[in-house]
Amino acid sequence: MLAVTVVLAIIVVWSALSRPLDRRGITSALFLMVVGFGVSVVAPAVLDVSLETIVAERIAEIALVLLLFSDATRIDLGVLRHQLGWPSRLLLIGLPLTILAGAGAAALVFPTMAFASAFLLATMLAPTDAALGQKVVADTRVPPRVRQALDVESGLNDGLAVPLFLVALSIANAEFESGVTGMVAGSMAAQIGWGLTAGLAAGILGGLLFHAADTRGWIAREWRQILPLAVALLAYSVAQLLGGSGFIAAFVGGLAFGRLAGPVRSKVTVLSEAAGDLLAAVTWIAFGALALALALPYATWQVFVYAALSLTIVRMIPVAIALAGSGARRPTVAFIGWFGPRGLASLVFALIAAERGVPEGETVLTAVVVTVALSIILHGLTSAPLVEVYQRWYAANTPTGSAAGETVPATLPRRRRQFPGVNGGDDHGVDPRPAP
């Protein structure tokens, strides 16, 4: 009970200080991770919780599902279907190249590691975190097309990485019986196909029911927030039952629900997003107190080198290749390449791998933990200054009427957590007080 009390107290403190800290580039994940780690160092017994891996896995998964769903509801699907160029390049070209580059880097940095384990490590660190990237995606000083590309990429790449991760995990543990090619194709088809099916079914049915009931005044005020949350969990649950990706189901379900729910979509998913934030907060505290504290003693210089490569070359070169010929200029390519934070999806993969066991698991899991920790620190602290630098370059080098790729119009709704006077935002739907 002491651990629960301490965790809740930490969340209360962050909530009270979130506005000024966020303005200074200190994200919730960074604050909660550091405080969790600090508590574990000063008073190890306080957060010394023997948590079942499957429980931790489910908490992190549901947090990611709720955040993916609520983010997806805010995307204008009508506009997006005409602007799939950059997101599709990042997903269909950038993601596979990132995995291959990550596997190659692991083979070089850890020469004794089996290639199956190197490929597994690469798939675990390939997806980016939609929640950790929201500080950039929500900043209206960044061109809408750039923000939209980052938002859609981070919303879908973790779901697309799931089948590759599961296949890599089975190969590393020598669990496959048929050919690897057939296994990859079968897993991809099942994960993506059933994920899409579950997401569309839950999102369309939930959206239609919500719209019909809401227009007739059938939904009591307190249940308008609960229905979308239930739809998100339903999409995830159905996908799990069918053998599909719950992450794909959540994101696709959010797209469908948001399209059918209409303009109120950003108002009725506040509870879903808040619930996701709360579960994510618990995950980050546990990450700092348990995973990070346990992994650091095993972190060698090779682990830190791989983490640095994963956050830079392994991510940025594939992005540059994916966006070649797209009209994106070099600063934009570098900006998109840098802001690929690793977070909840990688931790979920690490928990699954820890539960099932993996050869050279100590090195693989330590590399994941260190990479995620460095990502939280570096991407959080650099978001505000790099957005400022990029915005100055964009304003100085993009005259009115320019045909540059970044100037293509795109619609990406504002998030409710955007504070007035912060990140170039206004006070639409949030705290009405003027910024200090």
UniProtKB/TrEMBL annotation:
GO function terms (MF aspect): antiporter activity
Statement: the UniProt record of this protein carries the keyword Signal: no
Entry superkingdom: Bacteria
GO cellular component: plasma membrane
UniProt keyword annotations, A-Z: Antiport, Cell membrane, Ion transport, Membrane, Transmembrane, Transmembrane helix, Transport
rRNA-binding among keywords: no
Membrane-spanning ranges: 28-47, 97-122, 192-213, 233-257, 278-298, 304-325, 332-352, 364-387
Region (Disordered): 414-436
Biased composition, class Basic and acidic residues, residue ranges: 425-436
Gene3D superfamilies associated with the record: 1.20.1530.20
Membrane topology field: Multi-pass membrane protein
Pfam families, sorted: Na_H_Exchanger (PF00999)
InterPro entries (alphabetical): Cation/H_exchanger_TM, Na+/solute_symporter_sf
Location of this chain's protein in the cell: Cell membrane
Residues in Cation/H+ exchanger transmembrane domain copies: 9-388
GO biological process terms on file: proton transmembrane transport
Protein name: Sodium:proton antiporter
Species of provenance: Agromyces bracchium
